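worker-03 picked up job from queue 'complexes'. Input manifest follows; two sequence lines, order preserved.
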Amino acid sequence: MSGSGADARAAGAAHATFRLTARGADPDVELDVVDGWDRVVAGPTFSDLVASLPRGPYVVRFRLGGSRAERPLFLGADTVVDAPPMARASSAPIDGTFSSTADQTRAACELSQKTTGRDVGAQPTGRVFVFVRTPDRRRASVRPVGCGLRLVSRSGRVLASLDGGPACERSDVEGWSGVSLRVPPGQLLLRFAGPPVRLVPLQVFDGWQTQAFVLDPAGTSAGPRPDTLRVFLRRDGFDPSGQQTRDVDRGYEALANVGDGASPARVPPSVVRWLLAEKFDDPMLGLLGAWLQLAVGRTVPPYVLDHIEALIGPSPDVVALRIASARRGGPLPRSGWAGPSDPPMFRAGLQALLDASVEHDEAITDGSPLDRLSPKFLADLVWTSWTEAVAAEAVLPAFDDLLEEVEEEGALAESAGTARTDEDGPRSVDVTGPRLRGRSPRSVTWVERALRDAGVTTTNASRADVSDLARRLSLPPSAVRRALGTIRGANAD
Amino acid sequence: MPLQPKDWAVLVGIQHYGDDLGSLQGPLDDVGAFRTWIEDAATGGGVPPAQVKVLASDGSDRAPPLKDEIDRAFASILQQTAGGGGRRLYVYFGGHGLSGGADATLLCLASWSLALRGAALNEADYRTKLAESGCFAEIVFLVDACRTRVPGAFGQLPMFGAAAPKPASVAFVAQATRDQYPAFEAASADDRRVRGHFTKALLDGLRGGAVDANHAGPGVTADGLKRYIEVHTPRVAAAHGHAQTAQVTNGLPSDPPTVFGAAPAEGQVEIVVAPGATPGTLVVEGAVGEAARVSPPPAVWSLRLPRGTWYVTDGADGIVGRFRVQDTTEVLHVRLGS
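worker-03 finished. Artifact:
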């Protein structure tokens, strides 16, 4: 050692380390530590963190759901840092979320426990509740809350417009709009005005209320944001303070941020806890937990799949989950390999079906709505979604040309008569594109363009590797075969 | 930094799109801001203005810039730097993007639509062709665009290329977000102009925010810039209620460090001490350790400090203040005890 005593002390201090303890106050808080050179020197981990670090400036970063908080500090002694109060970001006005108000929470609870319009169909044993709210009422709104968002039947009928109408209740002062209806079990659609125009399936189950929450930023010309959609399944109305409601909300955040192959350590412990405890009575919690397990490379215990199916039946999401689980080494679906005809709500389920269809044609039935919609799917949400047809695309038949009506026709007509319609607009929207009868000038689809880009020509189309092309384009083989058939027939035209 | 006569840049800003994607508000301003930095010969990139090619959308039916125009800009640069005549090529893109796989972004042209899913540039292919051209030692790709996935979307190959690939140059590739995630833009608190979060973090880092324990000189290192972008893009996004994680791959040499621009190594700081509000001793301490100490403190304490985060203590671990020396082109005023 050399130099003065002060220098020696300084040198010793420079090499000393101190204990930094950071506490998240919530088991799902993710935290790490960044030093003065912007290097992550500890974490990330959940809940609590202990690190031994040299003297200097640091920032402890906390993340909970969509919220972030930071605590800068100078570490010159053993230090304990607690996370500041953190509120989650959610479109659902759950207690403790930072952007919701008591008025919005109260309105969501009240609306979800009543109906705002006439019953749809002869046997409306399911319920649907859609609630749109603005996160910041202080900002001047340039348009009504919920502008352009509609609840649509599969036949394309507008059941309710969230920007007004008889089936809708709203408060511009409090910044919300809601619809609550009794409907038959089956699939409805949420239509976002876009761009692009986007349709998201909402599955309704016998004895359950499907609750959909969407944020609509005020003061902007953009409409309700589909990426904020949260869906809950409840038997008895919206529960803003329930633990399972909060856990489902956390599950969405995790599913949106956990990509395939992510570390299991990135899944919030609370979601896994519910799943493994086999005590969940919220089917959405089960679906979310199962998809999260699969996303991080784990398997889903058979009893979890059985329990979900016992709660909501063999819906498209349950069937997709069984097939995805089977491809990971789990048990085969009891009903064989027949996939659903309708798209599942979860995009992970849709992707599982598309992947499985490359090896098993049965996963997506040739000509089913799921098959016919496959070229239109978008892949940027937790949810399955697709665009409406655009002029240059091939024309697809509407849902009701392919399927039997879910709704009883007379009741539907009555419902449509009560729904708000724009004065200059139609009473229904086409959910899959314009319906043209007879022969019309044919447009080249993007699938055909992509196949030609991959080197497919009229002369070699019959020798194309369908499975490989389907895998590369994220399409079922049936959709690829159709396009190949079109290319092969191009000469004949 | 003096002019870098062997550096070139291609800046593409596409703000105007059709209904399937919707127009953006920030790319043209982002390109303008990046151009200001890259042409700044005093503290910025020092690229001669004649060697900065800017291609921007204008909302017209012709939907510029066309792929042909972009490729011609690159081809022209490659012709003028043939045989290794270039040192560094910067490529900046601001606009809509789509996932092109784990390491690439499809850069959407103004004409992109669901019917024209291939109206995009495959950034990875462009990067490869440029790296194999043998014209530049370093390639810097900066992409402020989403990486969400639309099934069936695909990107176009560049039309230029070397007759025979040369040994690939090294590259620094910064993407605004992770694969299959969106990137965002929002109005800046400073001037209310809409900016991409990634570009804001990028420029803050280039102007002096990025620090590196292994580099005391002017400019910011590639290592430091990578860390700054990764740490601060989420911070900028969070301030606007967005979640966004940038992804940076740095293949540039670290020893000696690769340096961008010439942001001064130190900044002038004036610490104003309120009368009677502070203890008898003040110590300024940061990641490099103690930088200055004064006893008793004057009313105005002027000092030059390296870039980075600094704490003012009372000499006994009591924290009196905290500040960051970042944009070293201006004097930083710090008030204590008021």
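worker-03 released lock.
Chain A is about 30% helix and 25% strand.
Chain A has a mean pLDDT of 77.
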